[in-house]
Amino acid sequence: MIHAGRTAVDSDAIAAMHGLSPAAAHKRRPWNDPDHPRPITRGRPVSGRPRLWDEAQARAYANGEPIPALPTRRDDRDLLDRGEAAELAGVTPDTWSKYQRTARTQAREDTPLVPPADEIVCGAEHWYRATVKQCKRERAARAKAARGGRPPGSGDRVPRTEIGPAIAELVHAAQANGERVNVAEIARTLGIAYSTAHIHVTRLTGESR
Asked: Could you tell me which residues belong to the region Disordered (predicted)?
């Protein structure tokens, strides 16, 4: 997490702080020194999600100065990476990514399952805590929406020929991550009648809901 008002840096920036080239730094690895500030990211770095450090802490260490503490309070302007955003939203990171990859989801700008990233930091997408909290509220509202016909003002968000594949994609994403298939949420997400979503989900799962 990148705390509100702070800046994050990657290993190349740390290399520059120590007067090293990126290649030399990856041999020397100053970020592995016992007293070096810990990364502000979790897990192993992968393509598109590099390991990041707080700039003020990393620079202080490189200059031999006291390392400032990180804020302890959560702030709506904190920037969360994919895993942190998914955790706050109440879904798995894989589900968060699955929703991002769903073109139909991204095309519905009014109530997207996953909002566009607020910032790209060192090549990694990040969302403000406030953005994810709002996304979670909207997701809960869709799930609690009254059963019935097509939501007012929804129009033809998904062409009829694409309804089946769209529902299948959402159902399979939920099943792959051990989540309950929520017919009401699918109906609200795709802007279709609950009865239509129910028919397709029943066909896909073999369960009556």
From this structure: 21-48, 141-160
